[in-house]
């Protein structure tokens, strides 16, 4: 869905949250509600800064939140780390294939320079989106690295 439409439907996220809550309640009884709640909230709180700077979409964070409801805090933290490492490897590979590393680094540093300049001189606190739609395959769909992280967790690699 994310690859095709650049969106992750809220219906899927809500369904996953409900399934995660039910799974935790079956597994741990009443304590499962707390495990679910903390696992669900951890990605939202930990990744908010990336959402604020428009470097990670709300759907990606909600997807990690749904996974966190199933896994709990310790496992979702590991899954997030593995997902970001997978995303880094995927991004580096794509940038090397496209041959535009200098342009991507320039865009990254210009983004923050623009944000802090606007904030200092214009008292504007809302940054412009990092993804501006002008780049092609260099902007990955983070749901793919999340899938890689989940599959590695299922496979027992961490």
Automatic annotation (TrEMBL):
Source superkingdom: Bacteria
Keyword Membrane among UniProt keywords: yes
Residues passing through the membrane, by range: 35-55, 75-98, 139-157
Pfam families membership: Peptidase_A24
Stretch forming the signal peptide: none
Keyword Nucleus assigned: no
Record InterPro entries: Prepilin_IV_endopep_pep
Domain Prepilin type IV endopeptidase peptidase positions: 2-92
Keywords: Membrane, Transmembrane, Transmembrane helix
Coiled coil: none
Protein name: Prepilin type IV endopeptidase peptidase domain-containing protein
């Amino acid at each position: 869905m994310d690859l095709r439409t650049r969106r992750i439907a809220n219906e899927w996220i809500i369904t996953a949250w409900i399934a995660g809550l039910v799974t935790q309640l079956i597994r741990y009884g009443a304590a499962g509600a707390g495990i679910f709640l903390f696992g669900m909230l951890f990605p939202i709180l930990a990744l908010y800064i990336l959402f604020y700077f428009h470097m990670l979409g709300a759907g990606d964070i909600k997807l990690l939140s749904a996974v966190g409801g199933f896994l709990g805090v310790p496992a979702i933290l590991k899954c997030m780390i593995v997902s970001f490492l997978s995303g880094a490897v995927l991004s580096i590979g794509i940038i090397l294939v496209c041959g535009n590393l200098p342009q991507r680094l320039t865009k990254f540093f210009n983004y923050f320079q623009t944000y802090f300049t606007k904030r200092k001189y214009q008292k504007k606190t809302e940054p412009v989106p990092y993804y501006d739609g002008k780049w092609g395959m260099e902007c990955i769909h983070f749901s793919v690295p999340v899938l890689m992280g989940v599959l590695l967790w299922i496979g027992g690699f961490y």
